[in-house]
Amino acid sequence: MESSHNWLPKTVAALKAGELVALPTETVYGLAGNALSEESVRKIFDVKGRPLIDPLIVHIYDLKQVDQLAVISPQLELLAKHFWPGPLTIILKKKAIVPGLVTAGLDTVAIRMPKHPIMREVLKESKLPLAAPSANPFGYLSPTTAEHVESQLGEKISYVVDGGPCEIGIESTILDLTHKNGPRIVRPGPITEQMIYEATDITVATKERQAIAKDNSPQLAPGMLSQHYSPKTPLYLFEHGTAPEALPKDKKIAVIFNKRPSGSSSENAYWLSENGNSADVAHNLFETLHRMDHLSLDAIYLERASDSGIGKAINDRLERAQHKRRSA
Ligand code: TXA
Ligand code: MG
After folding, report:
1. Computed from CA positions of residues 127, 129, 131, 132, in that sequence, does the dihedral angle turn out positive or negative?
2. What is the DSSP string of 27-79?
3. Ligand 1 within 6 A of 189 CB?
């Protein structure tokens, strides 16, 4: 873990030398490498155990840098004015300078201008566009603290810069501006279609869940795989505002609610917020699941979020994280 006074020049030098460094963003921790270096990008896939068909997000410091990498449109400029820096990733037509490895061979590239001051300083000082997926092994829970990254990937990377817990706690919204039928959200996140419409008048289609791709073609939807973001402990969901039914009596379990249950609660009950505020639920979701996953439980039961605002993004992650029967 890195928290010395000279972390910034050290990090810039490491990235310029082609190494990988895990960095905090406002959403989750990212595993960053120089997006223009094939060698660095290949390391990212290796370290995560990520299939090469799953493209990466490129993080940038300012709009000038986007121009280098992708085709800018008035729509992009309008969205950037309202939502950058922040948790909105935008898919644009890519320029030749971006290695095909970053985009899984697609002719589009996902770009995001993050808000976290540590990530921004690194982007500014290095002047490099940084490819950075979430800093977790492929398929596992996303990391929202430096300790999560350290325990999952610590031995495989140069180091983690510790910026404390991530403020938002779930990944950015991904908006595709290149689709022939108009802008559409391919991964729900903290920025919702209503927020986009209210700020910019841009109408956005939300893409309902796609079937799992059976072929090996690069996928336009992130975390496409229906099993993703998962703890090792089997996770079962129950409806928002209810209690789980028919819990097994002979098993070690945890039951996680959105808010503190009223009245006396059993000792295996946990909650993600005091009063059900969905920003708090998002903030604490992965952190709590990481903690529960270390308790050697037989099962985790978790209440779905309310299906509005950031709750939609929370439920998207939960549906992918829940236990699937093997035959699927
Ligand atoms: O909040 C975030 O977005 C975090 C932080 C670190 O910035 N990053 C993140 O990256 O969540 P990752 O790699 O875990 O998820 C990125 C998703 C991928 O699953 C991929 O499918 C999608 O973005 N993606 C990347 N490029 C794409 C493209 N050209 N077209 C469609 N989807 C793309
Ligand atoms: Mg990820």
Report:
1. positive
2. SS-EEEEETT-HHHHHHHHHHHT--TTSPPEEE-SSHHHHHHHB---HHHHHH
3. no
Distance 55 CA to ligand 1 centre (A): 7
For 160-201, write each residue's pLDDT tens digit. 999 999 999 999 999 999 999 999 999 999 999 999 999 999
Asked if residues 109 and 58 have their Cβ atoms less than 8 Å apart, the reply is yes
The residue among 178, 169, 174 whose CA lies nearest residue 277 is 169
The pTM of the full predicted model, rounded to 2 decimals, is 0.94
Residue whose pair of structure tokens reads 């031995």 in the numeric block = 155
CA of 259 to the centre of ligand 1 (A): 30
Ligand 1 atom closest to 112 (CA):
7
Which secondary-structure segment (H or E) carries 146? helix 146-153
Q: Which atom of ligand 1 is nearest to the CA of 27?
A: 1
| Three-state secondary structure call for residue 258 | strand
**Alpha-carbon distances, residue 189 vs 37, 136, 157, 225 (angstroms):** 29, 18, 27, 17
- Determine the distance separating the centroid of ligand 2 and the alpha carbon of 250, expressed in angstroms: 34
Contacts of 322 (CB under 8 A, 6+ apart): 230, 235, 236, 237
